[in-house]
Task: structure prediction
Amino acid sequence: MHDTLDQQGWDELRAAATEVMQRAYAPYSHYKVGAAARADDGRVVIGCNVENAAYGVVLCAECGLVSHLHATGGGRLTHFVCVNGGGEIIMPCGRCRQLLFEHGGRDLLVWTVSGVRPMSEVLPDAFGPDDLTHMADPADAAAEGTD
Result:
């Protein structure tokens, strides 16, 4: 498991999220979101929401953050925070919790509205890449259907 950040480290992540939130593109909802996370190599990655006139085509701040993670070398997320336009801590939506789980796993620490929690508490019993190994081989399933 990764090292826990001290309060100064969390405050630095929050400041990075607040800074990038100011660059969000939210002309329709006017609800700006910024996100920041630490990767397992110590890098800080960021993202902000980007809206679109076709409302369902919005890119969440978490999507931008995960893209930044991979565009700058990949790795795993270890610590995450997201803020609204007032710099207040907010919770990622369900879709984004799944995205964060995929790229940080059960041990990813998330600063939530009720304190720092591991992703295993933020998204309990999550479905992830390991669950895909439990699927039957499609060729075996096809062979079984021909008997």
Summary: The mean pLDDT is 91. The helical segments are 7-21, 61-71, 94-104, 119-122, 129-132, 138-144. The CA atoms of residues 33 and 143 lie 49 Å apart. Strands lie at 34-39, 44-48, 77-83, 109-112, 115-118.
